[in-house]
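Continuing from the previous page of notes. For each protein in this section, the sequence appears first, followed by its structure tokens. Read the first protein now.
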Amino acid sequence: MENILKKNKTLTENGGVGYETSGHALVDMNYKVASYRTADDGTILADFLKAFAETPELAIKWMFYAGDIREGLGERRLFKILVKNVLPKYPWLIKFIPDYSRWDVVTELLGTAVEKEVVELIKERLNIDLGAMKAGKLISLLAKWMPSVNTSSKETVAKANKLCALLGMKPAQYRKTLSKLRAYSNVLEVKLCKNEWGDVNYETVPSQANLKYKDAFLKHDEARRREFLGKLTKGEAKINASAAFPHEVVYKYRCQSGEYSSTVDPALEGMWKNLKSIEMTKPMIVVRDGSGSMGCPVGGTRVHALDVATALAIYCSEHSAPGFENEFITFGNKPKLVKFGPNMTLRDKMTLAYHESDCSNTDIEATMDLILSTAKRSHLKQDQIPDVLIISDMEFDSATTCAGYSWPRTSTKDLPTVFESIRQKYKAEGYDLPGMVFWNVNSRTNAVPLQKNKYGLKLLSGFSQNVLNMALSNKLDPFEVLKETLLSKRYEVIK
């Protein structure tokens, strides 16, 4: 394995030497999640097959973790691609798709070898929902995500007509059935299409709809919407953000008012406060890459890598354990500790964070020195010394490579020597070297910065705050960190 790793070196965009593999194909996939949003189907499938060849059951579990909206990565396109190409061989797993994602993913299997099983699953759920509706009970979101026969998309209509035939229903019957179920489940889009804006319950609007229709609510239902926003500001109402990612809120804010605006949006502030909370059970300081390359868009969207890093830096600072809460470190050759005030709005924190972007080179030793000096000044105990979470696009400079490792630094010394130097500095002050986590938000070369290591360095990727759960692991090896998540109770049914 060691010889294989040495032969598989690659370069970052800036000439830094990294590796094509960490030594585990599944770890590589988990580290590349950010780049899979723009990767072609063949690349994704080829990477998955490598991971499957090494650890079949873990690879299948990871597929569901990648698509998991509530506790996983929430990568819907990636999940759809893998479902369509992998699950036909494992039909007993089809029934779990709605538990981790949405019913429209199930329809991706129409026209495959498991079409019969898919139709039976949909038919069973449809009958259950019709019975529950008649009894006045809760129903699933099946109807919401089934293809419609009366939509502008020819592809969707074709899929819907095919599904009608497979279900033994005429298009008119299928349309009326879905309409009844959608109306019963109070689907928002149905009300909006009928211009029933006054019937919208703003406290129950789904997360993504809150972002998508935020301006439309004000345009078509101004009085009620402003009344709701007033209550929201006073803490008398809540807004749904359960399925939103931090960067989606930050990006929306930046787009509507710019990077340095002081204009506060009550809806976005409320969504931020109601994001799914991941409490950091151990001290962790966030190091945010603000270099020029972070201005590149991610995942084929207009969202910048800097938006993602800024959102995650603010989020992590707010949820950090005592000692390093409400602060982050800029990642440059002169790192700086940035502190957020206790009464700052999200808008205030964004303005400050964007102002503190650093386009210079990155220096890991200087960053670690800053953390040590802060720990000394605050008289922190060992268990209060934070792990270091570096959020970056991982496109490090050519000066970052030495002794078989690639890292963000400006020193010409061997990396093991650098780490030994850092370790000695910490030891002299009565501290052990803290753990380090690299969170990839937009690598375009997919260079892996490290292989197996003795320093407790972890490799993460993605856009969901759920990724923090891996960062908080006490495991030292990246593969063991990933296994810990995949073997958890959440994914035990995936076999």
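Done with the first. The second protein uses the same format. Note its length before scrolling.
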Amino acid sequence: MNKEYFTFSSQEAETLGIETAVVLSAAKELNTKNMVEQDIVHALQNILIFLDAEKIAKNISRLIGLKLIKPATKDADSSSQKAQVYKLKLPSNNIGAGRRKLESAWKPSIQAYEVLLDMGGVNKIFIDNKINEFKMYWLEKNQLRDNWNVLFVDFIRREWVKENVSPIIEDANHENKFPSEFVKGIAEIGGFGPFLPQKYGGSEIDFISYGLMMQELERGDSSLRVLSSIQSGLVMNLIHKYGKENQKRDYLIPLSSGNLTGSFGMTEPNHGSDPSSMLTRFEKKNEGFILNGSKLWIGHAPICDVALIWAKNKKNEYGLFLIDRETKGFQTSKIDKKWGFRSSETGELIFNDMVVSADKLLFKTQNIKEVLSCLNLGRYSVACGALGIAMDCYDTALNYSKERVQFGKKIGSYQLVQKKLVDMITEITKVQILVWRLGLLLNENSATHEQISMAKRSSVKMACEVARKSRSILGGMGVTSESVSYTHLRAHET
């Protein structure tokens, strides 16, 4: 680039022809930095409506990332506002230092393979088949990046969701049907109990990595995250925490492989998830216990092979029980008519004089905080998953705004649409930082119940707001079954 600065005067800017020439000239200069001239010119011409030189400079700077340099040199008539000259500093050659373009000979690192194979459980053939697609896409983009391997890992996770979820999820939502193949699919990518030790079928990943997995699963559909987080954060986590060694061996490995499906029962018909008002009762009988009551709005209740349930005795003690499907007196039912989580199995766990052996009591306490703490990892999963919803809605709205033409212009050129998109990505970024910090605290075993609950609340609220903004940008398309914003919003508003 020969010119370091592009300069213009306010006198010149007062003439519309000159103003247009200024914009075109600036765009040409930027085009040397591998930017698309047509798009820049189109955006600037739609927004650059001011005749004041300073305002023009500021708007160009805001739109295309240039730095406004002032004060600049002045003409002989220095007392005149119109005589001022403003400069726009063009991007230096040092911008993006440390970043590099993807090379045609690039291959994923050993560490990237380890993350996907050992920690993620993704099939190697699936990974290898996607390398060329990844390279072709980014070679064409010709962009600078800090870490291509991280980008590749995220790409593989999303591709798995796209190939295994997207083709069937719309019909599943229409039919209010749970695709049973999801169970084995998530097991194949290591989505069940990945934070557990390897001897129990886990991958020993940290909670930030687990959160990213929940994020990508819910980006595909909420039913995927629900399946993984219930099985992992509520069932497997508590069996590992409170179960005996033989119980860990007998249940955790089949659950991690998808050969067993688990559910978790706390919520009741009349009292929701308020354990202090719990009506499900257990009492001592001979060498075991007898249980009566029910749990409602339970994920995977109709299809579960094993269930963890909370019950209460006359001493106001809470007991956590491990129940097998074939246990006498244990029944399940399905909730059919629901508008949210339509591709997820939801139902009721029913206990009629159900007799269980003493070893099925995993944990007993009088401290209600210990009962509520069992929900922590599940709530963290929701917080991370909601980020995936927001990202999916934002990407959909952004791409649509680049394609949809209204009144002869793409709707993304209108400031109202741009503001909505900026608001969306700003809120997403804020919650990303919040959830990342929470993941660090979980890794340190120092996260509190209150912190996790507030993170879940903040993330879900943000995701709903982003979904609404996305739906408004999509217009009529935002209320069709093909709209991810509508599907996601129905899941988390219900």
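What the second structure shows: The longest helix spans residues 415-443. Residues 1-21, 30-56, 60-98 have pLDDT under 50 and may be disordered. We return to this in next week's lecture.
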